[in-house]
Every structure is written in structure tokens, then in C-alpha cells.
């Protein structure tokens, strides 16, 4: 999901940015300027407030009625096996930040999922505003949106499966979007092997489009990999997860990322999540942090 590691880290292999690190100028010994880090902090706080306001407003109007089905693709690298409730719209909003030599932030990480049947949902993601904050000066742009569908269902009391297929549309701005359309596909399995504990393996494939810096020609290349997530439902409204993934491509060495996060149902139709991920190989993306909300309308 993503698929690049940046995509996976930004929003569930919702190739988040399809988005959900050492922080330059913040931690001792980190590279980069303090001014860049301060700008990054301000943008993250502001974006977080904008992200959580819709969740707060929706929670006030929920009326305490339990939704028919609630699922979220936000937490973790992989998409969930759950399908959006039939005939209802699920929206996801978030903000992500990557820290390193060039800090980067993305929002609103918008995803809209509509339940067509109990086994099929239509989905639209993005576009997202992206800000990069190098020492040489801030840069802003918009990444590519994507459209697609998810199919899935419960195979057994303890086993569920889903698959997501998406096509990215080359509508982003220069330096932030692609010149041509790309595609993404994944397979997700949930195994509830004991009580509140669930194991989620995931496999992903992605065709990416980039520009050769030497020739200026458009180049397509393949990325593939997988992830593993372990989820513990601590309470009815609170869950925690740890995860890891490995991704490789024709143009880069294998990248391995690990992380974890929390999910909190603040209302019957509203969930808030937060996660942090860090790379463990030289080819990995810089550490990332993200938070957001899912609302079932």
C-alpha cells in the first residue's frame, strides 16, 4: 500500500500517499536547522486541530446509536479486512509528518469509502496537500488522488480476508505527483487466534511512475512486499498494535519499517488513532508520526 515505504507509513498501505523519525533540529545530534523543525511543529499542530475538529463535531451528534458496521483503514500499514457498512459513507482524515534531513508533512489524508454491498466498497483517496521544509526553503504541492474498490468478507468466525485495488490519477503538481497513472493491489488477512488478539499478515504490489533524472524520461517500476501486524483489543473502545513491514523494488534495496500505535473509539461512530514508525535499514524512509480520525456517517 502502499508501494513505497513512505506511502505505507502515511496511511495504511493506502498507498498513504498513497500518507499515516530523528527529528531534524529537535533531538540532540539531529541534522538540519532549528527553524525548519519549528516550522514543522507549527504546521503539525495546526493540521492536527483541523483533523480532529470533524471527529469532535460528529461525536456530539452520534446520539449513542451503534453503527451497523465500523471499520477503519487508517491504523497500521495494511488496509483492514472490514468493508464499509452497506449504504453508508465512511470518511478518514489525518495528518502525517516525516522527520529527517528534509522534514515533510501531509494532510488531510482524505479517504472516502462507500459500502456498495456487504462484500464490496468503492473508495476514493486524496489528493493531499504536501509541505517539505528543507533548509533551502519551504516547498508546497499536491499529490495524486486514487480511485478503486475493496472486496472482502468473513471466511470463518476467526478468519477474514480482503483485497484492495486502486489506480492513481496523475493530477498532482510538479514534484509531488506522477506523470502517468499507476496501480496498487494488496491482500489482507485477519486471524483472531485468541480472544482480543488478532494477527494480520498483508501482501502488496505496486507499479510506480517516476522520472529519470539523467534522461528526463518517464520510468515505470515495480514494488512489492508485505507486513505483519499484531493487535490487542485492550478494552471495548481501546486497542493497541505493533507492526512491521518489508518492501523492495527494482530501483532500491529492501526497506524495513517497524512501529505501533493506538485506536480509541471516542463515540459509536468515531475512532481516533495515532501511530509512530521508524526504519531499521539504510533504504528505509525516515521515522514518521501520524494521527487522524475515522467517521461513519
Describe it.
The chain is mainly β and 297 residues long. It has one domain (5-296): Beta Barrel (Porin), CATH 2.40.160. The protein contains 2 helices and 15 strands. A 12-stranded antiparallel β-barrel has the order 1-3-4-7-8-9-10-11-12-13-14-15.
Query: Quick one: CATH class?
Result: Mainly Beta
Number of domains: 1
Shape: globular
Please indicate the percent range of residues in DSSP E strands (runs of 2 or more).
over 45%
The total of helices stands at 2
Give the CATH superfamily: monomeric porin ompg
Topology record:
Layout: H1 5-10, H2 34-60, E1 89-98, E2 104-107, E3 111-117, E4 120-125, E5 129-132, E6 139-142, E7 146-156, E8 159-168, E9 182-194, E10 197-211, E11 218-233, E12 238-249, E13 252-267, E14 270-279, E15 288-296
Antiparallel strand pairs: 1-2, 1-3, 1-15, 2-5, 3-4, 4-7, 5-6, 7-8, 8-9, 9-10, 10-11, 11-12, 12-13, 13-14, 14-15
